[in-house]
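Researcher: Re-running this chain for the archive, since the previous output was lost when a drive failed. Same request as before.
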Amino acid sequence: MKQPWKRGALLALALLAIAALVLAIGRAMQDRKAAAAAAPVAAASATSAPLELLPQDLLTLARAPLARTLQVSGSLKAVNSAYVKAKVAAELVALKVREGDSVTAGQVLAQLDTTEFDWRLRQAEQQAMASKAQLDIAERQLTNNKALVAQGFISPTALETSISNEASARATLQAALAAVEIARKARGDATIVAPISGLVSQRLVQAGERVAVDTRLLEIVDLSALEVEAALPPEDIATLRLGSTAQLMVDGRSEPLAARVVRINPSAQAGSRTVPAYLAVQPHPSLRQGLFVRGWIELDRRDALVIAVSAVRTEQVRPYAVRVAAGRTERRSLQLGQRGVSQGVEVVEVLQGLAEGDQVLGIGAGLVPSGVTVRVAPVSGTASAAAAAAR
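Model: Regenerated structure tokens:
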């Protein structure tokens, strides 16, 4: 059996444990009541401290011209460009221009070896001379045979043979003269000239190489007329019109580039099923073929109540904007319409949810809930004085 003093010790320990547990529960309840009592105070202090905004954080809704646009992208391309090719096979003796050089139509650009063509031309000329001599003999024989037939010394059949021989000799001479012209043209084709005026963009061969017929030697581009080929989906082609204006941004340029639609391809591209549209671009010294451009084509323009796309919040199911009225924020669900561009800013039409003159928070203000008190911080002392005078 346990001794009595051991049972008393165990009972005392149990009572102490129960007392500690009761004390802990009491303290927890007191802390919870204190936190509940402090919450309204903290909320009141938070509400009493207004959210300061900069003037640029507030956007005022107004009616403005809304341009319905079509997004496009593509590369600049010269309207007139040409590959200079070899018309005959020969060794390239000289190539006088390099990338970036300016050339004019008809300017000599390269020279091929003409040795072989010189000898062929001489051969053709000698054959033509021989054919001319044979024709002279045939003509004299025909004249003599005509006189002999008239005197009855030869038969008419012999005269017909002389006529045929003269005609054959004349045809042979004509063929020889044609061969002379062909050889002379081949000799002339050994001198390469520029087909158009422009700038050399590619030099594809070097002097000393032997080139075949149709070998590309140079590429020339004329930067006085540039265009953009934009691939558009079929559903957008129906709204596109010739003469529609466009604003394009070019890599390396901060200012937009004016353009207009000049042609629409009647056929769709195989595979992508897109339809190419061609936009003529105003020439500028900084523009080069191959530069990537992006922008929009203006389809139509009308007045509408618009809001900057950056002021529309989309993290909820329905788009909304944070309106500021009487110094407090209020979330307003929006029904939006057509998107477009107004004064170079991407905007969207507001159909319901806001009215003209309402002020909303821009994207720079961050996520602000409803019911927050806001205050616009003055920009300068003059602005503060003006605000005080207005109040």
